[in-house]
Structure formats: C-alpha cells, structure tokens
Amino acid sequence: MFRNKKLRHSTSWIVGLGMVLTIVVSRQSILLAVITGMVIGIITFIHLLYSWQRYKEMERLSLYLQKMAGGVFSLDVRDNDEGELSILKNEIYKMTQMLSEKTAQADESKLKLAEALADVSHQLKTPLTAMTVMTDLLAQEDVPKEKKEEFLGNVSSQLIRMEWLVTSLLKLSKIDAGAITFSKEPVEVQRLVDETISPLAFQIQDKQLAVKKVGDYQAKIVVDVRWTKEALINIVKNAVEHTDTKGVITISVTDTILYTEIAIHNSGEPIKDKDLPHIFKRFYQGSNAQKQSVGIGLALSYHIVTKQEGAIHVESASRKGTVFTVRFYHHREHDKTVT
C-alpha cells in the first residue's frame, strides 16, 4: 500500500502539518498541544484506514480483471454502495457480462463451423471417391466404349452435384453471416409461383405430374423476389422428387389481413414422424431421402424465409401426403394495398 506515491505524499502532508500545528499550539498550552497531536493522529489513522480499504478494493478489482482476461467470467464484483469505486465495479461487471456473451457466441460459431466443415467433408468425400474410381477405370485401355461413356456421364453428374453443394453452402454461409441484404418489393403470387415452376418443367413433364394452382393468386407480398423464388424452387423440387409418376402437386394460396400463405402439397409417400422435427436441418437426410440428396435445399429455404420474418413448417400424414407451408406476414409499411 505504501508503494503508492500519492498516498505517501498525502500522509506526509497530514503528519507534517500536524507537527507544525502542534509546535505552534505547544507555546500556548501543553494540554492543547497534546489534544491537537491526538486529533492529528486520529485523522492520520482514519486516512490510512480509508486508503487501505480502497487499496484492497482496487487489488480485488485487479485480480478480477486478471481472471477475466484468463476467460473466467463467473465472478461478481457489483455492490450497492455509493461512490466512484462502486460505479466502476458495476461498469466493469457489465463489460464482463458483455464479453462473456461474445465469447459464448464465438465458441458457438466455432462449433458450428467445425460441424459444417465435417459435414462438407463427408458430403464431398463420396462423389470424389466415385470420380477417382471411374477415372482410374477410364484410364484402362480394355474398357468398352459404352462403359467409358457411362463413366463420363457419371463423372459429369457428380461434378454437377458438387457444384450445387458448394454453391448452396456459400449461400447458406452468407445468410448465416448476415452478408445478404434482403430487398423488399411487391410481387404478385401468380408471377412468383409461375417463375418457381418454370425451371422444374422438365422434371414435372418427365414424371407426368399434374400441378394444380388454387386460391388467391392475385395476392401480393413484399419480399426479396430472387431469394424467395429460390426458397420455393427447393420446396417444389422436393415435392417433385417425392411424388409418384402421374401424381399431383397442389400449390394453394391463402390471403388474409395478417399474412399470405403458400402451401405446397404433394401426394407422395409421407415423411416419417421421427424425421419431421429435423427436416430443415442442413445435411439432414430422412428415411425417404433420394439417393443423390445432400440435405441442404430445405435448410436453405428455411433460412431464406425466416430471415425475411416469414414462417415455414411442414405437415405429413399417410393418405394425406405432405404439405410445406410458407407464410409471409403483412407489415404496416407494406400493407396489402400496394399496387
């Protein structure tokens, strides 16, 4: 404590002034000088005691900050006293809580990144292994021409699959990082659905599927058209893949004062109950997943919709099929009167 230069100076001043005052008073009265000396001694003692208490508090704060720097955020230095030191303690505690939350978020991000990298590694390993085997076979001179063409087709298919996977992962990463700014523009649901179905026309025709459109197709919603279209394409594509040949896909629109809802129903095999809670998790592959599925399309749709303050859920039951429902809420600044 006495290593503190300011404390030494203040104590020296008190003692020095006390001695001078005592000497001056002693010329008038010895008793008065003794009393003056006792008062100065008491003042000096109180000053030292107060300084010692503050020194201990500062020492405690210093130790607290050292532990905080080491990653220990569980200590609490707050108190209900008044004064500058108490204010400092409370401010330090607030900063500690903020750092604790930031650290927890960083740890969670690291964990998610590690899981994502592991998933990506797993997803890329299968097509890379298949392509390695097929290229080795293509290098053999005794492989028939028909087989070589088949292998080349398979390699091309795997490359397309990998390109889609990497592109989708980049989109998801950008959305997670908040690097995507979703624009808001009014669009008629009729146009949105038509532009969703168009890229899937070949698959729909190939399976001889019927697509029925019912409901309030004249309704308008305020969304990012490009991203919302991508979300709907993934959902409709999933419906096409899981609907039997000559089956039916129904896209119905419900427009209310509060929201506009787009429901995509397919008559294929229902999703198992155990898979329903996980259907929007990235890389999740349910019991009915296609062989080439990587489990990322629905996850991307979920993130696109929810980042626009929308909602998406799925219901599935035997004899009723599966329904994916996407709901966009009307906001005051973009009400339903937009034309």
From TrEMBL:
InterPro entries membership: BphY/WalK/GraS-like, HATPase_C_sf, HATPase_dom, HisK_dim/P_dom, HisK_dim/P_sf
Pfam families found in the cross-reference section: HATPase_c (PF02518), HisKA (PF00512)
Enzyme class: transferase
The reaction(s) this protein catalyses: ATP + protein L-histidine = ADP + protein N-phospho-L-histidine
GO terms for biological process, alphabetical: cellular response to phosphate starvation
CDD domains the UniProt entry points to: HATPase, HisKA
One GO MF term: phosphoprotein phosphatase activity
Keywords for this protein: Kinase, Membrane, Phosphoprotein, Transferase, Transmembrane, Transmembrane helix, Two-component regulatory system
Histidine kinase/HSP90-like ATPase domain span: 223-332
Gene Ontology cellular component annotations, sorted alphabetically: plasma membrane
Stretches that traverse the bilayer: 7-24, 30-50
EC number: 2.7.13.3
Domain Signal transduction histidine kinase dimerisation/phosphoacceptor: 112-178
Protein name: histidine kinase
